[in-house]
User: Fold this.
Amino acid sequence: MQSDEQNGSSPALTDLRARLSAGLARIRLNKSDLAVRAGLGRTTVSEAFIGGGPVPSAGTVTALARALKLPPGELLELRRLAVEEVAGGAVDAAGPGRPIGEWDPHSLEVHPVGPIGGVPSEPRLLPGYVTREHDRFLQLAVEDAVQGRSRMVVLVGTSSTGKTRACWEAVQSLGGAGWRLWHPFDPTRAEAAIEDLHRVRPRTVVWLNEAQHYLGDPQTGERVAAALHALLIEPERGPVLVLGTLWSEYADQYTALPAPRGPDPHSRVRELLAGRMVSVPDSFDTNALAAATALAENGDRYLADALQRTRTHGRVTQDLGGGPALVHRYQHSTPAARALLEVAMDACRLGVGPLLPQAFLTDAAVDYLTDTELDHLTPDWSEAAFAELARVVHGKQAPLCRTAPRRQGRPPGAPSSVTTPHPTAGPMFRLADYLEQHGRTTRRHLCPPASFWHAHTHLADPGDSVRLARAARDRYRLQWAFHLYRKAADAGVEGLFIHLATIRWEVEAWEAAEPLFRQAADEGNAPAMCFLADARERAGDREEAEAFARRAAALGNTNGLKSLAAMRERAGDEAGFWELADEAERIKEGLDHEWTVVSALTRVDGEVVVTKDPEPYYQQAVEAGDTSKLFSWAQWRERIGNPEGAETLYQQAAATGDATALVRLGELREEAGDRGHAEAWTLKAVSAGEPYAARRLVVKREKSGDTDGAEALARRAAPIDDTQALCGLAEMREKTGDRDGAETLAHTAAHAGKFYTFRRLAEIRKKAGDSEGIESIYRQAVDVGDPGGLFQWAQWREEEEDLERAEALYRLAADTGDGDALASLAKIREKAGDPVGAEELARRAADAGARYLGGRDREYWPCGLDPDGTPTPPWT
Assistant:
């Protein structure tokens, strides 16, 4: 076999492989045994030795060096030189980013490991890597990218679960093929993405770690999503690989469907993420723990150290990232430092940040201290506290670190920033991710004290004011919500007058609320127009009432006209009722008619094409660039009995990004008995935005009697289809009486962080009247950590009129900070004749952000609550 140098590749790579081969010969192992010792796949090890192949990843080289007892530093230096030699001039220097081999993983926000026994680690050294299920989907995306198809994968999970490290490992094989990596972050992540996404060149990895900073930005998030979508679907710009990470709560927020006729702030983001998210579990399963143990036994000191603490719960990556040490530092800080951390935790969970001004943290911390602690503060207390929190803990993370974003010069002719950064006074700080998530859990039942709200004056971003206003309203701090919404509106944020108006209306101040409703209507807010229509009707001003209702109807909202009709009917005005009701119906029919016509025309066009010979029509359309006709062309060939020709066209359609074509290819391969390719096409369809593709194939297998094949596919699809297939399979087995099988699948889904399968099984058992089975399901859901399990269980007991048991379960849920459970407890106490206890529970529910108290809040606190929980006096 020819060497890399003979192939014109790299002398350094030839030298690297020669040294690896010599080491292998010295210890007298075959490559399969070496793979086991190094904790690597056999294919990975084999490729590292094959001449003419890609440069092995840094992780592979390190693992092989340890297993062969060779100096890792020398081999990594050879690898670095090989990457430079192989890449040569192949990378387009005009595009953003730099060769993957030039990146340090820590610069891409891979968590560093901490010292063992006080001995510092090597700067670039990472612990051995354990491959898990989500890595397989990353590898599929990388393989597609190598073959010329642009792909995007977003890993979703909680903090410090190994998402960023998984992305880093996935791109290593691309480094030897001349790919580059771009991490947009300056001047802000969202701005950098907007400015330079159009400059991304083929063979680039776009690195979107903590993608909420790109996709969740209120001003630019939708634009970033649109630009990414364009990058992925334009063939001449590919291949590119977009890798991102997201916390689960952000993924849920961005993909949630809006309320009917409500705002839809994340529509483009939702479309972008559809089928591109892969779940990362919080902990290692049995197989992963076994693999980590093997690495530890083969000399990985960091994994060996972490496994001493994590074998029982499996949260290995969090331990390696220093999470426990951060919590220990927080719990044992000085009072002043602890107060600063709690301010930062509260700010982050209420939507401020991630960068927090020092002045905000300092002023807000006052009410987090007791009187005694305040009395003992020295004049330089804040400087000492910030210095204390800047000291790193295990994992080289500081609880609260100062940030100093650096600006980089733009290339000549590059566009200027699309937005102007909001000015900030003084240093900015950022809370460690693990502590942020710790605060979301441990402090979610608390409302911040008064000093926190007063310190808002140090927050320059109007978006922070909007988010704080929303948090204040959720906690019935109505006066603060109004003040913060007003501040944001005065800063130019549009669409807030409806919130201001509603708050004023809630505190029964119509004279103050009406002008605000009118301003909201002037902004084009249809619900405000409907509200004003009702108000003017009640005031006897029918002409203006109808004018507001018709303005709303012109925007597609006929509720105002229907409400006026109902009021006139109640007033005995039959003619007025029929006039407005008919008008509302005509408008509604007109809006629906537009969609009916479009649908009918599509069907007519389809029939016309089918009745003739459509081949020339389709061929002409495709040759003219209309690749959307490929799928219909393939369907036609299926109908005329040409399955081979159909499959060829489906493959062409799939290459253009048609996810439906991928689904059909999977089905055709399944029908042909080619299970391997059927699964491959189906999983690609799920990744491309068809989450139910795997579920359809799973159902077919289950109904055909192939239960093992159905379950195997459902498990393989679980990380990318949000456990849809597992859930569907569990329901089928429940309905056929296989309860053990259904519960096993529900447990699998729960370990992936998706607990709704248990709830679906409970609903099936409710319909069957199986009380004992329902109790068993809810108990299992709670045992595996379902955060809503206790609440669902309590609701069911309440529905069954078992109030004593329901109250006990609600209290257990409330102890975890569940605000809805507190609200339900308040209602039970009210029914039991305990108004004092009911109001106290309702106040605790308000502190936890439970917005729906059944209207009792107006009776308890007609003007809202102050930060300390006392009723707010009337205010203007």
Summary: The CA atoms of residues 89 and 178 lie 9 Å apart. The longest strand covers residues 240-246.
